[in-house]
Design brief:
By secondary structure, this protein is an alpha/beta fold. The chain has six helices and 15 strands. The protein has one domain: Rossmann fold (3-Layer(aba) Sandwich), CATH 3.40.50. Helix 1 packs antiparallel against helix 2 and helix 2 packs across helix 3. Bound molecules: uracil (URA). Uracil (URA) binds next to helix 6.
């Protein structure tokens, strides 16, 4: 059951224009990445489980629903960090795990150098965050790690993807739905999404 959602919404489109613009400064870039993450969350969480509860309003009793399943956000270091705040503001009960991967210079395959997850992650909905779905190798490896730890429900949320990254992730993990704000033309020879937005980590953290 492959699922790819490229969410189109005027607010997302407007903020996409901001982050694609090479003249946008890191402060505005960071804010927009975080806000796009929040706007995507509306669609990503549409099927979250809820349970019935009763709440006393100033006038009487109201039938309400509250979230019933824990959520864990897993940003992939380092660009994934840029998406955390916007989503965490909307799901303040979510716990946060972190994954760091490096690419082997020869095989180009990703390897883990850091992984720290909250207790109970196995029974949570885990949302992986990484703004750029380039080769798909990093996100796919992160899904491997989570599945090895017994996680059953995983979603991936990014900002810009390309057909190569989508195909790889869907081939390796067809059960993981993909949510993006834009699907670009292709991956270029040096592993950047075209036209994309450049190096997302560098633009978030001002490292170039
Ligand atoms: N990572 C980035 O930051 N940008 C790309 O275009 C691809 C991978």
């Amino acid at each position: 059951m492959k699922k790819l959602v490229v969410m189109s919404h005027p607010l997302i489109d407007h903020k996409m224009a901001k982050i694609r613009d090479k003249n946008t400064h890191p402060k505005e870039f960071r804010e927009s990445v975080s806000e796009i993450g929040a706007l995507l969350t509306y669609e990503v969480t549409r099927d979250l489980e809820t349970e019935a509860t009763t709440v006393e309003t100033p006038l009487g009793l109201a039938d309400c629903k509250v979230l019933s399943k824990p959520v864990v956000l897993v940003p992939i270091l380092r660009a994934g960090l840029g998406m955390v705040d916007g989503i965490h503001n909307l799901i303040p009960t979510a716990k946060i795990g972190h994954v760091g991967l490096y690419r082997d210079e020869e095989t180009l395959e990703p390897h883990i150098y850091y992984a720290k997850f909250p207790v109970g992650i196995k029974d949570s909905l885990v949302i992986i965050l990484d703004p750029m779905l380039a080769t798909g190798g990093t996100v796919s490896k992160t899904v491997d790690i989570l599945k090895e730890r017994g996680v059953k429900k995983i979603k991936y949320v990014g900002i810009v993807g390309c057909p190569e990254g989508v195909s790889r992730l869907q081939k390796d993990h067809p059960d993981v739905p993909i949510y993006l704000a834009a699907l670009d033309s292709h991956l270029n020879d040096i592993g950047y999404i075209y036209p994309g937005l450049g190096d997302c980590g560098d633009r978030l953290f001002g490292t170039k």
